[in-house]
Write a structure and sequence with these properties.
The complex is a heterodimer. Chain A is α+β, with helices and mostly antiparallel strands. Chain A contains three helices and four strands; from the N terminus they run βαββαβα. Chain A has one domain: Histidine-containing Protein, Chain: A. Helices cover 36% and strands 26% of the residues of chain A. In chain A, a hairpin with a 2-residue loop joins strand 2 and strand 3. In chain A, 38% of the residues are buried. By secondary structure, chain B is of the alpha/beta class. In chain B, the strands form five sheets. Chain B has a seven-stranded mixed beta sheet. Classes of the chains: A alpha+beta, B alpha/beta. The interface between A and B is medium-sized, with 15 and 19 residues.
Chain lengths: 87, 339
């Protein structure tokens, strides 16, 4: 399992556009993927789940990857956070 | 590994007095006496305290960190004192870091005492409920605030009044089952993210999240709003979680229950729930099975367990079969009525 701390870096927060992209990226991997906001854990492959986080700019989140391709998944999604949700 | 191993219970460590004031104003007719004072103070205990002995001067073991309730006894006692002694007694209580004071039964507090509380930054509230009732309401509210809760990934539907929680990996078809159930007149509580909260011992309540309420995603269609699409009768806001239905790809090597006598319950937030492991394969109508699970739960709840009754019938027949013709056709004679 890989655990990463990331920050929401863009101005509008984790709104529907980046949420959809994260879910799409996550779904292309076998690994299980969770996002955790202060103990509140959602499935990162579910769009409603990711949007339920209501993650505002500046917020820190924990990402958890678990599975055979967890390294690729983590690299891909962490990079997306690091770039401020720019593809 | 058990089904809900990953679920981590969340608990509030505290709530602010301001939050209590806002949430209880209309619910329990809790009026603020010194509006705006002491809202930032924190309540860390779900219990209430009536500070009778503390008022009388015995402050050892005074559970001052609890919400303090002043009922008739406390107020009448204060009123029986001379003003100077009254203020001194009241000050003695507020020398401890109490979160707030609640005065029941519409009792009035002397303006001089209100001033002392305001000076010390302690919020005062008043309610017209009598003490027993006020304590009951407030205890229940605080119990709920400090109850353990957790988000669960799944779908939660009321089927014939039974709360069925569907879980299984992403993409196995939970949302499709929900749509099918809603179409047949059952009611969606929440899809995708369900917040479950332990109420008392052995009761688990489930609801949607504030933002996710009755929205759902169906792969290939996108986001839908079940309430807007199917109307008010297709939803409800909260429901007790009664059965966990786990969906799994059909695995010819796995063992599925055949009699229903050996069902292992599953534990979620330390609450034991009946658990049905349901293999999925094409041509299987999960909706009907879900309805039957609900009906079977109701039957068992009302005292009829088909598996047990059948097993009993079998052992009775075995007992009675001594010396009977083993070529039994189960019906001894088809009467002359060819229907």
């Amino acid at each position: 399992m890989i655990v990463k701390r990331v920050r929401v870096k863009n101005e509008s927060g984790l709104d529907s556009r980046p949420a959809a992209i994260i879910v799409r990226k996550a779904s292309s991997y076998q690994s299980k993927f969770s996002i955790i906001r202060e103990g509140f854990r959602v499935n990162g492959k579910s769009i409603i789940g990711v949007m339920t986080l209501v993650a505002e700019p500046g917020l820190e989140l924990t990402l958890e990857f678990n599975g055979t391709d967890e390294e690729q998944a983590a690299a891909d999604i962490v990079a997306f956070f690091e770039n401020g949700f720019q593809e | 590994m058990s089904l809900f191993d990953e679920i981590q219970e969340i608990r509030k460590e505290n709530i602010s007095v301001g939050f209590l004031a806002d949430e209880c104003r209309d619910r329990f007719r809790l009026r603020s006496i010194n509006e705006g004072v002491g809202r930032e103070k924190l309540i860390t205990d779900r219990n209430l305290h009536r500070p009778q002995l503390a008022l009388a001067g015995y402050t050892k073991l005074f559970t001052y960190h609890r919400v303090q309730v002043l009922g008739n006894t406390e107020i009448y006692y204060l009123n029986s004192l001379k003003p100077e002694k009254q203020q001194q007694t009241f000050r003695a209580i507020l020398n401890f870091d109490v979160p707030c004071l609640i005065i029941t039964n519409s009792n009035q507090l002397d303006p001089a005492l209100i001033e002392i509380a305001t000076e010390r930054g302690v919020a005062l509230f008043s309610t017209d409920h009598e003490t027993t009732k006020a304590v009951y309401f407030l205890s229940d509210f605080l119990d709920d605030q400090f109850a353990g809760y957790a988000p669960v990934h799944g779908s939660f539907v009321d089927v014939y009044g039974v709360g069925l929680l569907f879980v299984g990996r992403s993409g196995i078809g939970k949302s499709e089952i929900v749509l099918d159930l809603v179409e047949r007149g059952h009611r969606l509580v929440a899809d995708d993210v369900i917040t479950v909260t332990r109420k008392g011992a052995g009761i688990l309540m489930g609801a949607g999240t504030r933002i996710g309420e009755h929205f759902m995603e169906v792969r290939g269609l996108g986001i839908l709003n079940v309430r807007e699409m199917f109307g008010i009768r297709a939803i409800r806001f909260q429901k007790r979680v009664e059965v966990v239905v786990e969906l799994q790809e059909w695995d010819p090597k796995a063992e599925y229950t055949r009699t229903g006598l050996d069902e292992e319950p599953v534990s979620l937030l330390d609450v034991e729930l009946p658990h049905v492991l349901l293999p999925i394969f094409s041509g299987k109508n999960i909706t009907v099975i879900a309805e039957v699970i609900a009906l079977n739960y109701l039957l068992c709840h009302y005292g009829y367990n088909a598996a047990e009754v059948f097993a009993e019938k079998l052992s009775d027949s075995i007992d009675r079969s001594n010396g009977r013709d083993s070529r039994d056709r189960s019906i001894p004679y088809f009467e002359h009525d060819f229907e």
